[in-house]
Amino acid sequence: MKIALVMTVKNEARLLRQNLLYHLGIGIDRVFVYFDQTTDDGKETIEDLKNVVAQNSISSRKYQDKEFLKKFWENADEHHTARQCLNTYDAIQQCKQRGIDWLISLDADELFITENAGEQPLTAFFNESITKSYDIVQLPTLEVVNKKMAYTNVMAEETLFKKQKRFKSKFDQLYRKVFNPYTKEYTTTSYWLGHTMGKAAINVDREIIPYNVHRYELLDGNKPKKLVTGNILHYHLYDFEDFLKKYDNFKDHPDTFLSGNKINFLKSLWIKLVNDPSYDEIYLRNYFKNNILFQQKDLNELSKTRFFNVVKRKEEATINITKPKEILEGEDLG
Predict the structure, then answer these.
(1) Coil, helix or strand for 244?
(2) pTM, 2 dp
(3) Of 227, 194, 222, 188, which Cα lies nearest the Cα of 207?
């Protein structure tokens, strides 16, 4: 069984090498990296790695003969997710040519991990029975708990992750208060700040096409047979520098998703804030610390209920995962 990985990246030099070394270390056979309007030295950081195919995002014209990809090539100039879907489709075609069985589609700030916090071997996760029975393996998200203002190599350092966004008991729910400097008001939001849709592994032998960056469909219109297992570790807004980079990258993006839905309030606020010359780096650093970073009081709430933080939670909010740290130990992370 051969397994590959595809990702589309923009200015991810801080994460890219550690991401690829981890995935190659767990047994991924091939990695397809598409650089999308990158201006940093990400390409140079991985040029010595074997079994990595690096190229720029494909031209929107390459698949204009494929009517079923029309919503992507029509919107590729404006939407980076459209380019990402075209890149994933392109990687599927390369996998077919190379005899690769499964393709995992991720972002540079995400790691794939097997069952039991990564202790399950890759060959057991993608076994013959699963390959015969399923078109897609859907990978739910675990989101990093960011405890430092600055990490050197976060994937080799941080081991604490949020398990889920919502809990059955109202006393177990976790919230953050986020300040809006434009209205001078606080907004109560979930402690979970990134996506919850997960990512997927694609059975290359099937005729599968992207629906969006999180979901896939069969070319004949039928619903794919899906197995939900494993996880994605999402290093979302893991430190202050990543906060600045992410929302600087987003400054020229449209305010809607490819679906037409508006981007959420926090994303819109932080794009505006990071790119507003009225707020200097000192202000933004303090803003990140007070609104996004998990300080000690926030960490205490992860293990106790909101009822005065003294009653033990019914549902665990976090999980400790050390597999990336184990794999990356001793590697040249640059």
Answers:
(1) helix
(2) 0.95
(3) 222
Q: Which amino acid belongs to residue 50?
A: K
Question: Taking the mean position of all CA atoms in its chain, how far away is CA 229?
Answer: 16
N-term to C-term CA, the chain: 31
**Residue 273 CB neighbours (<10 A):** 18
* pLDDT higher than 70, residue 105: yes
pLDDT of res. 334? 83
- Taking only the tens place, the pLDDT of each residue in 270-311 is 999 999 999 999 999 999 999 999 999 899 888 876 565 667
Distance set, CA 9 to CA 33, 34, 55, 215, 252 (Å): 7, 6, 11, 19, 16
Q: Which amino acid is present at 3?
A: I
For 256, the token pair is: 């809607």
Tens-place pLDDT, residues 24-34: 999 999 999 99
Cβ count within 10 A of residue 7:
27
Amino acid at 257: F
